[in-house]
Amino acid sequence: MGRQDARLSPDRRSHLRDLRPAHRHRRRPHRHPRHPRRPPLCHPLQGLAGHHRRCRRASTTLPGMLLTPLLLTPDHDIPAPLLTELTALYAANHEFFALSGDFPDPDDIRPEQVAAALAEELAHPDAEVLLARSEGRLVGIAITLAHHPDPADPDPWIGLLMIDAGVHRQGQGQRLARLVEDRFRAEDRTAVRLAVLDGNARALAFWTALGYEVVDHRTDRQHGRPCAVLRKPLDERD
Predict the structure, then answer these.
(1) How confident is the model at residue 223, as a pLDDT?
(2) DSSP letter, residue 126
(3) SS (H, E, C) 43-101
(4) What does each C-alpha distance from 230 to 145, 196, 198, 223, 234 come to in angstroms?
(5) Measured between alpha carbons, how far is 105 from 107 in angstroms, rounded to an integer?
(6) Rounded to 5 degrees, what angle do the CA atoms 150, 156, 157 make?
(7) Helix (H, G, I), strand (E, B), or coil: what is residue 118?
(8) Which of 47, 137, 218, 225 is deepest in the core (most CB within 10 A)?
(9) d(CA 85, CA 136)
């Protein structure tokens, strides 16, 4: 499995206020108005705190897999231990990235490159990063787009579904795909789309085996790479 190109999709707490009543004889201290502070966007994921509010469901489960949204730190970073896990996951799929061209050197994928790639995906307000764990170990990632900017396309998209190469052919990809579909079903979405790069026969076979059908061929907007667009109705659970 590898990344299904999301760039066909265009051009990607509540705070509880302390309500203790002040003592009637206590004088409240004068407070000067504060101006909002905006930290410099030094980290590629800063400015994406709103991603917390986009998490539509806290988690989804199947036997052997737990799917949860990526949550950033208060500084809007990916927690360092998680970024290490993600980098290892991406690096394990170097063969796919050699095909996609998403990283300068697919045999040397760095943490800062993974952080930048995720920041690019999350720049879209409807994007969500989902992390798949099995027995506590990160085994996969999915990136989804809830709404396509083209009003003629009512379907959500799977922009990326990737499984750790060390657990390929163990059914983890199917579990992850079905968990993503279940999230969309819970939101009453009726179908889902994705794109597969031409030449990625393995990914095409994977998706068609899960009931996806090719409905279009086009090039992605960022790199002009030819892709097949696949769609699957979500009217019932497989």
Answers:
(1) 77
(2) T
(3) CCCCCCHHHHHHCCCCCEEECCEEEEECCCCCCCCCCHHHHHHHHHHHHHCHHHHHHHC
(4) 15, 8, 12, 19, 13
(5) 5
(6) 95
(7) helix
(8) 225
(9) 12
C-alpha angle 229-231-236 in degrees, rounded to nearest 5: 170
Q: Which CATH number fits domain 48-233: 3.40.630.30, 3.40.50.720, 3.40.50.300, 3.90.70.10?
A: 3.40.630.30
Residue 50 and residue 128 in contact, taking contact as beta carbons nearer than 8 Å: no
The CA angle 226-229-234, to the nearest 5 degrees, is 165
| Tokens, residue 48 | 């994406």
Question: What's the pTM value of the predicted model, to 2 decimals?
Answer: 0.75
Q: Measured between alpha carbons, how far is 122 from 145 in angstroms, rounded to an integer?
A: 9
Across 119-235, the runs of DSSP E, i.e. the strands, are 127-134, 137-145, 157-163, 191-197, 213-219, 226-233
Per-residue pLDDT of the chain (238 residues; tens, 9 = 90+): 555 544 444 343 333 233 333 434 444 444 444 433 333 333 334 334 344 434 456 778 878 899 999 998 898 899 999 999 999 999 999 999 998 889 999 999 999 999 999 999 888 889 999 999 999 999 999 999 999 878 888 999 999 999 999 888 888 999 999 999 999 999 999 999 999 999 899 999 999 999 999 999 998 867 788 999 999 999 866 5
Domain assignments of the chain as residue spans, ordered by start: 48-233
Amino acid type, 41 = L
